[in-house]
Amino acid sequence: MAHVITGRYRGIPAQDGAGVKLTRVINQPQLRHQDPFLMLDEFRSDNPNDYIAGFPPHPHRGFVTLTYMLAGRMEHKDSNGNTGVVEAGGAQWMKAARGIIHAEMPKQEDGLMWGFQLWLNLPAARKMEAADWADYPQHKLGLIERDNYEIRVIAGSYEDAVGPIQQPEQEFLMLDVRLQPQAELELSSQQQQTRLLYVYQGQVSLNGSQLERGELVRLNATDNLQLQSSELAGVVLLAGQPIGEPISQYGPFVMNSPAEIEQAIRDYQAGRLTG
């Protein structure tokens, strides 16, 4: 039987926005797009110089962004007039689709800023829909609590818990699994073709293989996941069905062809991106 792990990767140091230091886990030389996931960044620092400049106004077209905070506070403002602050345990979802300009800026001057930003592709048929945005505090997430672990359902559904973010065409699932020392649990497969697990705290045993903080593994679609922890640990599970369409990316624009990218740039330069 094939092993559940089909690849092991580590992110690379990167900077984005106005110089925010982060780790790029997906969309780096060792791990390109993992259809439908375009990018995964982890930002984690208690040095305000690493994050205080934030992500000033910038455009997007053609995909969805999802920001999930473990610690700290980040404010969102966009060209559609939306504003909100995502705090620890909360998630923010933005469908850029045909176009939006937004800023994400820290709402703190010191302390730990820790979280993720995920870029999720949209199929061609949905890339030019109207933009949308929503903010979900921690109490809006689905939650499964047991004696020595908890599962926070950010997107999709797992067991009887439903996350606030839904992209049913891709069967998108995002779980934050938090384990106490000596925890054991089994995560059943939902059979999505793309399935990834990232260790953001501690270390875990996954079907007998030891994984350290900062490791991302690709998983096969079928096997259930046997997780064990000897210490406090946290992992994020991402799963989704590939879109299977060409990906043409230029910075903050992700379309299906270079011609569509050129059109996005023209629309942005002409002030039409958010029309």
Tell me the layout of helices and strands.
Blueprint: E1 5-10, E2 12-16, E3 20-26, E4 37-45, E5 55-60, E6 63-71, E7 73-78, E8 83-87, E9 91-95, E10 100-106, E11 113-121, E12 132-136, E13 142-145, E14 149-155, E15 157-158, E16 161-162, E17 173-179, E18 184-187, E19 194-201, E20 203-206, E21 209-212, E22 215-219, E23 225-229, E24 233-240, E25 248-250, E26 253-255, H1 258-269
Antiparallel strand pairs: 1-22, 2-3, 3-4, 4-11, 5-10, 6-9, 6-11, 7-8, 7-10, 9-12, 13-14, 14-17, 15-16, 17-24, 18-23, 19-22, 19-24, 20-21, 20-23, 25-26
Description:
With 275 residues, this protein is mostly beta strands. The chain has a single domain, classed as Sandwich (Jelly Rolls), CATH 2.60.120. The protein has one helix and 26 strands. A seven-stranded antiparallel β-sheet has the order 1-22-19-24-17-14-13, with no helix packed on it. A seven-stranded antiparallel β-sheet has the order 2-3-4-11-6-9-12, with no helix packed on it. β7 and β8 form a beta hairpin. The mean pLDDT is 96.
Give the gist of this structure.
This protein is 4% helix and 53% strand. With 275 residues, the protein is mainly β.
List keywords for this structure.
53% strand, 275 residues, Jelly Rolls, 1 helix, mainly beta
Low-confidence stretches: none
Strand order of the largest sheet: 1-22-19-24-17-14-13
Number of helices: 1
The portion of residues assigned to helices is under 10%
What is the gyration radius calculated from CA atoms? 18 Å
Strand segment tally: 26
What is the distance, rounded to the nearest whole angstrom, between the alpha carbons of the first and last residues? 52 Å
